[in-house]
Design brief:
Length: about 150
């Protein structure tokens, strides 16, 4: 019986698994609460709305590091930077989109684009954003199968 070759790499320092060997990451794992403790009540409501939207995508893992909260399914598909009065949401897609809500876009590979959106109110977590997150979630799933 032959054993299937693992497609992940485990960091020897923090023991987290990644899709590529020596993938850049932070080994400084912290608690989710450490990111949320300085947020206003409105920002906590935005975070709660995001959690609700993500539940509809499927199973994912939240990894809080010193620099951000990473969402993985099984590879990263989005990241959150919690600010006092807002949340900066970054997500990956395999297509280019142009929209006034997009604060920035970076082409990270031939077929992957990273987008940033600023969330200042729970109403910013609307149907359109949920569709983008769902698509980003599929990117995380597909990358985990490669």
């Amino acid at each position: 019986m032959t054993r299937a070759k693992s497609t992940t790499w485990r960091c020897p320092v923090c023991a987290r698994e990644f899709a590529r060997k020596s993938q850049a990451h932070s080994c400084k794992v912290v608690t989710l609460e450490s990111h949320l403790k300085k947020a206003t009540q409105a920002t906590l409501q935005i975070y709660s709305a995001l959690e609700g939207a993500l539940r509809h995508c499927g199973k994912y893992t939240t990894v809080a590091t010193k620099s951000q909260i990473t969402l993985m399914a099984p590879t990263s598909f989005a990241g959150l930077h919690i600010r006092r009065d807002s949340i900066s949401l970054e997500f990956l897609m395999t297509r280019r989109i142009e929209h006034p809500r997009i604060a920035s876009m970076l082409q990270v590979s031939q077929r992957t684009f990273a987008y940033k959106v600023q969330l200042r109110s729970p109403v910013d977590v609307d149907r359109e954003l949920c569709e983008w997150l769902s698509e980003a979630y599929q990117v995380g799933l597909a990358a985990g199968r490669r």
